[in-house]
Write a structure and sequence with these properties.
SH3 type barrels, disordered N terminus, 40% strand, OB fold (Dihydrolipoamide Acetyltransferase, E2P), mainly beta, single chain
Length: 373
């Protein structure tokens, strides 16, 4: 029997996650293989050279270029402050001296007696990469970064915005309420909404200072209002907003029961989230990770074979008319079946949570990789 693969959404209570943490350019790795790290541990650092400014000292002092070294007060490699005198003439009988001041804080990078110019570099910009998840350093990539292995709860979403954030989980579970209650106790937390996210709630949570929001659904117009522009198909994650992870999809959709149960199990625990999403090649899903006390003991890793659809697989419908519904594969007819649009496709029989059964094209399904709960 041929295998059928589908997109996969991981909702796992106990699994091993491997994360590569790399610098944007060569630098220093600050940990060793086998080290235990928490999510806030800085594992690698580097510096990006600052911008440079060129000052024509010869012109400003009205001297020949080859004379510049005689009138420089500062040397190559010396730190200077803004408005500090860096070059000066002797003047006439000690009077009528000409001076050149540094226009910025920086370091003297070069003094040229050919062009008569001085180069001042702005201070380098430090770049640090943290572990993001608690775990064990599995591998050190020399001068670049590390690979971290960790055991914990791993939940992927459908769509997200904003980058990496961390905080304690605070669940707000109120049904049929347009504006769930939230107060200053949520400051710095990762708020988990059992329902959909409205713009009014997002604005209030953002003003309080929550680090992130995980919700069941969100309206497309709400997302566009948060971003101040329509969301396209490019990669997300660089937006300057409160990070959002949507677990179910667009619309007024509550969080799936199995996903909410996982969050309830780990309420008040520290977690890491990332809203980065990429739909095209090299798919990236928004995610939530809650570390276990035993970072790599027990738990199972996942692979491409986990995405094989089979009888008993938990699945989510990803297209209308049953978009967002969750069920179990009860049958996989081997023959092609003609659907409403008169096209023959491979289909699956899905048993939904309400007890109904529907025939759904396999292309309209995604497997939910989850533990038995």
């Amino acid at each position: 029997m041929s295998k059928s693969y589908t997109p996969g959404l991981k909702v796992l209570d106990s699994t091993i996650v491997i994360k590569e943490r790399k610098l944007p350019l060569l630098g220093k790795v600050l940990v060793r293989k086998g080290d235990q790290v928490d999510s806030n541990k800085i594992v690698a650092s580097t510096e990006i050279p600052g911008n440079v400014q060129m000052i024509n000292i010869a012109n400003k002092l009205n001297i020949d270029a080859e004379q510049i070294l005689s009138f420089m007060i500062c040397k190559i490699g010396e730190e200077v402050k803004k408005n500090q005198i860096i070059a000066r003439t002797n003047g006439i009988l000690g009077l009528f001296k000409s001076e050149v001041k540094s226009p910025l804080d920086g370091i003297i990078g070069n003094i040229s007696d050919i062009t008569g110019q001085v180069i001042i570099s702005e201070p380098p910009i430090p770049i640090e990469v943290d572990a993001y998840i608690p775990g064990t350093i599995n591998k050190v990539i020399d001068k670049e970064g590390v690979v971290i292995a960790s055991k914990g709860t791993f939940i992927q979403g459908i769509i997200g915005i904003g980058g990496e954030k961390k905080g304690f989980i605070k669940i707000i579970c109120e049904k049929n309420v347009n504006l769930p209650k939230i107060d200053n106790s949520a400051l710095g937390c990762i708020v988990v909404l059992s329902s959909y996210l409205s713009y009014e709630f997002y604005e209030k949570a953002s003003n309080i200072g929550v680090n992130g929001i995980v919700c069941g659904g969100i309206d497309y117009m709400t997302l566009s209002k948060i971003l101040n522009y329509p969301l396209g198909i490019a990669i997300t994650g660089m937006e300057d907003v409160t990070t959002i992870v949507v677990t179910e999809g667009f619309g007024n959709i509550n969080m799936a029961k199995r996903t909410l149960k996982l969050f309830e199990k780990h309420n008040n625990k520290y977690c890491s989230i990332n809203g980065t999403t990429q739909i095209r090649a090299g798919v990236l899903r928004p995610e939530v990770f809650i570390g276990s006390e035993n970072h790599i003991e027990g738990g199972e890793s996942f692979s491409g074979d986990d995405l094989i659809i089979s009888v008993g697989s938990p699945v989510r419908v990803i297209r209308n008319p049953y978009f967002g519904k969750i069920g179990i594969v009860s049958d996989l007819p081997p023959k092609l079946v003609k659907i409403e649009i008169e096209t023959k496709l491979r289909v699956a029989e899905i048993l939904f949570e309400d007890g109904s059964k529907k025939i759904i094209p396999r292309a309209n399904l995604e497997v939910i990789l989850s533990d038995k709960m």
